[in-house]
Amino acid sequence: MQCVVKEKPQVKFEPATSSAQQIGIMGGTFNPVHLAHLVMAEQVRKQLHLDEIWFIPNNTPPHKQLAGNVSAKDRCAMLELATHDNPYFHVKLFEVMRGGTSYTVDTLRYLKKRAPRNQYYLIMGSDEVNDFENWREPETIALLSTLVGVRRPNYPQNPRFPMIWVDAPNLDISSSLIRKNVATGNSIRYLVPESVRLYIESRGLYRD
């Protein structure tokens, strides 16, 4: 499965729809996507009875530098590989195609304009919950979406905004751990989907 990102992308608008769906939003750099992302998304989908989960990779993240010198094309290709066998998971390139710095509030405004009847559930890990008030326009985000926090054992959670909490298996996996393991020659088998591991190996990603 291929993920095509043009050199000079134009925003690709989704057709407007009057149907109402319950959509979970998983945003991030996905650099790379790993099993903890997928487990979190599936647990939220099942427990909240959502229709779909949309994985929306950042173009340029606002709060951190994109590590690993990996292209947007590679990141979204790995997402496609990781999610293609789950009919409820979909990769959406709104932020990559828009270009520039990716802000969640801009994406939610776009989505609500195109499909105002949809209900969006913004899925966050515990670390994101605690940093949420530092995001651009958190009050607006909380109005445009339902905030969903995924609990992490022994991690303090003190959100200022109303939030639905979901429990999920605690997989101590991070994208930085994946990159470090690849760079040092350690195994990432069973930390990422096998298709993603093979893609990283074939493309020589994260070796430097």
UniProtKB/TrEMBL annotation:
Pathway: Cofactor biosynthesis; NAD(+) biosynthesis; deamido-NAD(+) from nicotinate D-ribonucleotide: step 1/1. Pfam families: CTP_transf_like. The keyword Membrane does not apply. It is an enzyme of class 2 (transferase). Keywords: ATP-binding, NAD, Nucleotide-binding, Nucleotidyltransferase, Pyridine nucleotide biosynthesis, Transferase. The keyword Iron does not apply. It catalyses: nicotinate beta-D-ribonucleotide + ATP + H(+) = deamido-NAD(+) + diphosphate. InterPro entries: Cyt_trans-like, NadD/NMNAT, Rossmann-like_a/b/a_fold. GO terms for biological process: NAD+ biosynthetic process. Its EC number is 2.7.7.18. Residues 25-180 form the Cytidyltransferase-like domain. Catalyzes the reversible adenylation of nicotinate mononucleotide (NaMN) to nicotinic acid adenine dinucleotide (NaAD). Belongs to the NadD family. This is Probable nicotinate-nucleotide adenylyltransferase. It comes from Lactobacillus gasseri.
